[in-house]
Amino acid sequence: MSTTVVVAQIFALIAFVLYTISLQFRSRSKVLKTQIVANSFYALEYLMLNAYAGVNNSLFGISRSILFYIFHKKHRKCPSYVAVIFITLVVIFGFVSYDGIFSTLPVIISIIFFLALYTEDMKLYRIVAAVASILWIIYNLAVSAYVGVLDSVVELISAVIAIYRLDIEHKKRRRFFRRK
Length: 180
Known about the structure:
- By secondary structure, the protein is mainly α.
- The protein has one domain.
- It is built from seven helices and no strands.
- α1 packs antiparallel against α2 and α2 packs antiparallel against α3 (52-73).
């Protein structure tokens, strides 16, 4: 393996740790801040692997998280016209960086993540994270992002754990204490 590929895998590992941790946060602002940094490392990984659809997705991930963080801090919902603009840009950049069927996966992932965060429903966001992890496994295999495959498998497990811990188990506990 070349030095570039090794460094790309190291960046992927850093991003993976940050992203996996972010799924366990209940706070929307902590999730968003952590994902800004994680997506920065993902962008570097994909850039070093010449996987430009992955770079575009990571850059949109950074801008998406910054955008939602700003609106969250202002206690305002992101306007729908911003959603239309963002999704349009994702599709345009996806078209420009098209490199075969696998390069459409980051576009799909970026759009579903945006829509999940747009709803401000963290439970839906965790479900989308699980689905997106499966799509990332496929993309990462296609572009030789080997740590990314491992990353996506662990992210899938982390998302499932978060869904159980923060959504299912938490709901059960609240019901239990309401009965008493």
